[in-house]
């Protein structure tokens, strides 16, 4: 079966996914690696959840200078590492003491488990349309994440390939262009309303998949749709049903 | 099992493939679509094999101005279309008469069948290492080729992503960089000695897989290895044996 977007009026040929939070559970995965790091170094007072949340709090701000053009593009790996260094300092640790481990701990962001529905949903959807990430992650990160988590992407376009971070319009436009499709033939699936809003502004179709525990048990944002999205789905399996 | 390259001394983590000729049989596939085009237009005198060979003869020359910096990068789709237009003229046909079909006939280059061993060999190899094309094809072309031919790439890096055509050193270097690997951890597998020589010059490991009928029954070049390659293999299945 085919799916025609009500908002774009076009047949959807590709569904691209926000990845951190929409396809994989970054909070549990990163906290697991932070806890192992703390245990190795006998940092008994280090709260792995609090450390993870503090590290993640630097994620969006770290991309802002690149989004607004005051800093040249650097891959997300490098930003994650910079944010890790300042988070260690915030928690009273000297980053120099852990220099040899920083690259490996930074790679926690590629050792993330998919949500329960992700692999089955992507496999179903991938039989009908082109599927791939549209993520702020760089290609090497997304590739290793996909191999570890068995995400069956047809194509991986990293933010380093595009040289722009979402929600910059160019991040969506260049992915569409590389796929040789029209914006209206591409759907973004995401757990974040602001990401969908940016995609919609450049003409993409949209699917909202809320992930109410992405930020932990006390999450308050992105619990409900805040825009006129083509689809609101309970899971990627639910999304795939609209295409098969 | 792991494979350590004798030439680079490193564990091979990715095997990248030349695509046209090494993984897929472009001559048979393109000639099939040219023959169908000729039949639709009752061009009874059009020799589909001769037309295909003439079109392919413009392939390398079309990239030369981009390789030597006298022309800005344009994707292979655009070069294939320009070469098609001049081939039609060479064969006494007015390209303007076929304007609406040029895009579809150009896309013959993504409707190519794999050699008999390709899919099985790639599937085996893909369980051990990262596999992907390292081709002069653009991402959209390689993606559609992969979906149609069921090529199980882990990642697709198009020449438009890299903005360089092989054998320019940057074409190999940038692919390695995007994968976050060292050159010596990457192997190029190709049916063409000059491609392997260029990869070797920038530090990659090499595997030669001769395809003695790629250019038809009278092929005279690339029948035997002409360099000191890590491996000389009779097929991609044979190559995969070294990794499993």
Describe this structure in words.
The structure is a homodimer of 244-residue chains. By secondary structure, chain A is of the alpha/beta class. Chain A has two domains: 14-25 and 113-241, 3-Layer(aba) Sandwich (Rossmann fold), CATH 3.40.50.1000; 27-110, DNA polymerase, domain 1. Chain A has helices at 26-40, 48-57, 59-67, 76-90, 102-106, 118-126, 139-149, 159-162, 169-178, 193-201, 236-241; strands spanning 14-17, 130-133, 186-190, 205-208, 231-232. A five-stranded parallel β-sheet of chain A has the order 2-1-3-4-5, sandwiched between helices. The N and C termini of chain A lie close together (5 Å). The A-B interface holds A 77, 130, 139-140, 143, 146-147, 154-158, 160-161, 178-180 and B 77, 130, 139-140, 143, 146-147, 154-158, 160-161, 178-180.
Order of helices and strands of chain A: EHHHHHHEHHHEHEEH
Strand order in the largest sheet of chain A: 2-1-3-4-5
Percentage of residues in helical conformation of chain A: 40-55%
Q: Would you identify the CATH H-level superfamily of the largest domain in chain A?
A: HAD superfamily/HAD-like
Q: What percent strand of chain A?
A: 5-15%
CATH classification, class level of the largest domain in chain A: Alpha Beta
Which topology of the largest domain in chain A does CATH recognise?
A: Rossmann fold
Structural class of chain A: alpha/beta
